[in-house]
Specification:
about 525 residues, alpha/beta, Ribosomal Protein S5, domain 2, 5-stranded parallel sheet, 22 helices
Length: about 525
């Protein structure tokens, strides 16, 4: 007899419908599996046969053929154990096949028939809904994750025998009446706040502008001046996640196996801060079975690279493509895997090895040592950073201040207002932030008056800007204007934007030329 069961495979972070076909027929007894399978999937035959035996099923010795289609997609992981077992039982006449056409089944089998959790349950459920299947069977430990997706019935199962009982019953059980989206209604709480930072008004202002337009930012200054402290508070001033963003981010963490039954949903923007010894593969993602790296795990949030020049050049140069395209592609023999890389880059560094350049009263580095240190950041990568701001030494009086600075909640309100302006401006387009504007949007939304054009020309010639730097200056100016609620970019906005880029020329002008 022949039967088929619908399941879902994972490619990158998205689910792909997979049809599991089983044929049990007369002939020389054997068990064969085809369909471009990884070793994990091929091993399913031993797990499935043993699980069926230990669950009380006695399948006669016959010729069993299993096919997973489409054949041009490589199947990875252990989530096909359960659909293979059900397809075999249905082909043997031991399971009612009437429900199988309208449901998706996924799960790993233990040798005793117990159903174990799988990675990517959120992507599996989303793909099942997109494929038009009204029901999805998931391991019991994955059910809270699956319930996030609306419009599809999720049924949790913990044993192969229980699943067969459900499929053989006259009607399916009803879905549990709760949804994890209620977690979104909880107020976000952080154990840090911008009010804890004393002084550093320029650093705080530059950070606010960067977050408002989602511009990449570089902090440069002596050690112990608050660069990391400010960076770690950036999530507290970023707008709250929308439901769509929450699901997209949670998919990445689900595929990476970083969600738990207790925390099945990402409700706060990610903040990833890898150590400078990280390998290129860990940053970009990959592996034998490609998994998301730090770049993708930071999607929707912040990727913070402290001690920026200490990273291997081969590692940080990987950032070029993701910063431009918002995604990263991992190529393997089995195919190409796309992972999201829609993050805000925040980097921090000292101006030299000792950290005090250009203060020659404290810095003992030679000019050659300073140039060598700064040149670890390549010009193409530097060009992809919109804002470069300096942190200065904190005075004793600032440390002694009892009253803190402005709170994160207050800053966030201004940023949310600016983001709302951007959302309305780019409605219907495929961009959401000022930093994502292309040439056409810059010409349309960054029009200048005669006074502003004359002033910008003077900046362009004085600072010897490149074409890319010129566009970035306009983008930052547009964000500054949005923060003030100004429809037009004024001279003051251009002046501030130019100031937020001037440090690049101060430190790297002698290496790459003023930019």
């Amino acid at each position: 007899m022949y039967s088929k069961v619908h399941s879902v495979g994972i490619t990158g972070v998205e689910g792909v419908p997979i049809l599991v076909e089983a044929d049990v027929s007369d002939g020389l007894p054997g068990f064969s599996m085809v369909g471009y399978l990884s070793s994990q999937v091929k091993e399913a035959q031993d797990r499935v046969r043993t699980a069926l035996k230990n669950s009380g099923f006695r399948i006669p010795a016959r010729k069993v053929t299993i096919n997973l289609s489409p054949a041009d997609i490589r199947k990875e992981g252990t989530a096909f154990d359960l659909p293979i077992a059900i397809a075999m039982l249905a082909a043997s006449g031991l399971v009612n096949a009437s429900f199988l056409e309208n449901c998706v089944i996924s799960g790993e089998l233990g040798l005793d028939g117990k159903i174990k959790p799988v990675h990517g349950a959120l992507s599996i459920t989303a793909a099942a809904k997109k494929d038009g299947k009204p029901v999805c069977f998931l391991p019991q430990e994955n059910i809270r994750e699956g319930l996030i997706i609306e419009g599809i019935q999720i049924i949790g199962v913990d044993h192969l025998k229980k699943l067969t009982d459900v499929l053989n019953s006259p009607e399916l059980p009803k879905q549990i009446a709760y949804r994890e989206v209620q977690m979104l209604q909880q107020s976000e709480s952080y154990d840090v706040d911008f009010s804890e930072i004393g002084g550093q008004p320029l650093l705080r202002r530059a950070t606010e502008v960067a977050v408002a337009g989602r511009h990449n930012i570089l902090y440069i200054g002596p050690a112990g001046t608050g660069k990391s402290m400010v960076a770690r508070r950036i999530p507290t001033i970023m707008p709250s996640l929308s439901l769509e963003e929450t699901i997209d981010i949670s998919k990445i963490y689900s595929v990476g196996g970083l969600l738990t039954p207790e925390i099945p949903l990402m409700t706060r923007r990610p903040f990833r801060s890898p150590h400078h010894t990280i390998s290129p593969q860990a940053l970009a993602g990959g592996g034998r079975i490609p998994k998301p790296g730090e770049i993708s795990l930071a999607s929707g949030g912040v990727l913070f690279l402290d001690e920026f020049p200490e990273f291997k050049k081969s590692t940080i140069e990987i950032l070029r493509q993701p910063l431009e395209e918002g995604k990263i592609t991992i190529s393997r023999i089995s195919g190409a895997y796309d992972f999201p890389a829609n993050f805000m880059l925040v980097a921090a560094m000292n101006p030299c090895s000792c950290g005090f350049y250009p203060d020659r009263s404290r810095c003992r580095c030679s000019e050659q040592q300073v140039y060598k240190y700064l040149s670890r950041i390549s010009k193409p990568l530097l060009d992809r950073i919109d804002i470069c701001t300096e942190s200065r030494t904190v005075t004793y009086e600032e440390l002694e201040q009892k009253a803190g600075g402005e709170s994160s909640a207050s800053i966030r309100r201004r940023i949310e207002a600016a983001r709302q302006i951007q959302a309305e401006r780019y409605h219907g387009r495929k961009i959401y932030f000022n930093s994502s504007m292309k040439k056409a949007e810059i010409e349309q939304f960054c029009k200048l008056g005669e006074t502003e054009r004359v002033f910008l020309r003077k900046i362009y010639e004085t600072q010897r800007l490149s074409a890319r730097s010129y566009e970035k200056l306009l983008k930052v100016s547009r964000t500054i204007a949005d923060l003030e609620g100004s429809e037009k970019i004024r001279k003051t906005h251009l002046a501030e934007a130019a100031g937020l880029r001037s440090l690049e020329g101060k430190y790297w002008g002698g290496i790459y030329g003023q930019s």
